[in-house]
Design brief:
The protein has 17 helices and 13 strands. The protein is of the alpha/beta class. Strand 11, helix 12 and strand 12 form a beta-alpha-beta unit. The chain is globular, with a radius of gyration of 21 Å.
């Protein structure tokens, strides 16, 4: 039995790898192929397409990458035609994967979509694509199942995969000692994103924020870069922020860096969910290409951009998006929170409630894999 698996970015790679491992235990002898990142590759997924070509966000930003994206799309479709998988597991990256799902449906391949597209926030037209082309949608946020099921999509809430695994690996003292972080001043952790384009847009903003914060009070700044960043982006990529020596660099230790921080400055995305699970007070920021913002903003129907605030139903952490995403505003919010320990404690309490709402008593990977395996076993027995 062959199963096509695809993910377009690091968080999706992690989630899909977890489901693949759980499926392999349930379906001995199953072969997995598709578009893997490092974690899916380690889980045994054979690559027929290059994931790095897909890790782009933004309506305008994607234009220059379209030839590469289309190339990988054709490779995946050709592999599906040649190998005729029994099912497909497509994770995140809805713009790419919903188009692929339509092609797979025509080939008779049942599609399971892991991580729902944010149709509840914008582009509700994707609901029709899900309803038509996806056998089952596996949601990781609790409010999503009702939203999609009420619109005719076969959706189920499996729990958030990160809720069971996000925790620091070191105690605060050990972490500070290993990285030689002074203990007498606040630690501010910087998380600029995981994709090259978004990091590049955020580095100048963070540099200005660091300069303004440093002028007002002594702090230690730690850039928490995603794993393999120097390999992926080159050793000089973070020079604009770290080159002057004011910001320390660490790679692949984001959970420890946020868990032990007095404050995290986090790009909106998966890292804000991780910060919430770790109880790290944060300021959320994000910036896209101005034309992307102009084209997309009228279609956004939710009051917040961060999933943390959406799950909470109110502004737990301040959001600085687009024109508000400046070094001056980021520094002002950071200094306000650093000066107000009671406010940071209140934020930690609110984040704990967000964490509790995302936790389930079942392993989300096992739930997803069990549903896929049950479907495949029914197909075989019939």
């Amino acid at each position: 039995m062959k199963i096509l698996v695809s993910a377009g970015e690091p968080s999706g790679d992690r989630y899909a790898a977890g489901v693949v491992r759980a499926l392999a235990r349930r379906l001995p002898g199953a072969e997995f192929f598709g578009c893997p990142g490092p974690e899916m590759t380690a889980a045994g997924v054979r690559a027929v397409a290059d994931q790095s070509a897909l890790s782009v966000v933004g309506l305008v930003e994607v234009l220059g990458h379209l030839p590469g994206i289309w190339r990988e799309f054709r490779r995946l479709e050709a592999a599906a035609r040649a190998e005729r998988p029994a099912a497909a597991l497509l994770t995140d990256s809805a713009a790419f994967h919903l188009r692929l799902a339509a092609r797979l449906r025509k080939l008779g391949v049942p599609v399971f979509h892991l991580v729902a597209p944010q149709a509840w926030a914008w582009r509700e037209g994707r609901v029709r694509q899900l309803r038509r082309n996806v056998a089952e949608l596996h949601c990781i946020f609790p409010f999503e199942e009702d939203f999609f099921r009420s619109r005719g999509v076969n959706a189920c809430y499996i729990g958030h995969p990160l809720a069971r695994v996000v925790r620091p690996s070191l105690g605060r003292g050990e972490f500070f000692s290993r990285l030689r972080i002074p203990s007498g001043q606040p630690l501010v952790t910087l998380c600029p994103g995981s994709r090259r384009g978004e990091i590049a847009r955020h580095l100048p903003v963070l540099r200005e924020a660091v300069e303004r914060i440093s002028a007002a009070r002594a702090c230690t700044f730690l850039l928490a870069a995603p794993a393999r960043s120097e390999e992926r982006f080159g050793g000089a990529f973070f020079e604009p922020l770290c080159g002057a020596g004011r910001v320390r660099y660490c790679e692949g230790e984001t959970w420890d860096a946020m868990a032990h921080a007095d404050l995290t400055l986090a790009a909106s995305g998966t890292v804000t969910t991780e910060a919430a699970l770790l109880g790290s007070p944060m300021v959320i920021f994000y910036r896209v290409h101005p034309l992307t913002w102009r084209l997309g903003r009228p279609f956004v129907r939710v009051p917040f951009f961060s999933i943390v605030n959406l799950v909470a139903g109110r502004e737990v952490a301040p959001e600085l998006i687009q024109k508000d995403c400046t070094g001056e505003r980021l520094a002002a919010e950071a200094l306000r929170l650093l000066a107000d320990e009671d406010e940071r404690l209140r934020m930690r309490g609110s984040l704990a409630r967000v964490r509790d709402s995302l936790a389930t008593d079942r392993d989300p990977y096992e739930v997803s894999a069990a549903r896929i395996a049950a479907f495949l076993n029914r197909e075989v027995s019939s």
